[in-house]
Amino acid sequence: MLLVGNNGGLLEHDGETWRTIKVPHPFEVRSLARSSSGRVFVGLAGDFGYLRPAFDGSQTYVSLRHRGDGGG
């Protein structure tokens, strides 16, 4: 699995097909990192989160932006 951040957003490639993963600011993907447990973290300009696998094999972005700051 290949993940690429570019001006179109976050793209996933499985060797055959490209898919777009929706993120809040698609033109502002800044960084990608995979933890030792396999979770993929995504850094955006003004946001930070991770990818959560869905039942159909797709990926969903989960923002951590408001965690620990009292919400809002």
Descriptors for this entry?
72 residues, mainly beta, four-stranded antiparallel beta sheet, 7 strands, globular
Detailed description of the structure:
The protein has 72 residues and is mostly beta strands. It has no helices and seven strands. It has strands at residues 2-6, 9-13, 18-21, 29-34, 40-44, 47-53, 59-63. It has a four-stranded antiparallel β-sheet, with no helix packed on it. Strand 1 and strand 2 form a beta hairpin. The radius of gyration is 12 Å and the shape is globular. The mean pLDDT is 86.
Secondary structure elements and their pairing?
Elements: E1 2-6, E2 9-13, E3 18-21, E4 29-34, E5 40-44, E6 47-53, E7 59-63
Antiparallel strand pairs: 1-2, 2-3, 4-5, 5-6, 6-7
Main pleated-sheet profile: 4 strands, antiparallel
| Secondary structural class | mainly beta
Helix proportion range: under 10%
**What is the arithmetic mean of pLDDT?**
86
Q: How many strands in all?
A: 7
Q: How are the strands of the biggest sheet laid out side by side?
A: 4-5-6-7
Tell me the Rg in angstroms: 12 Å
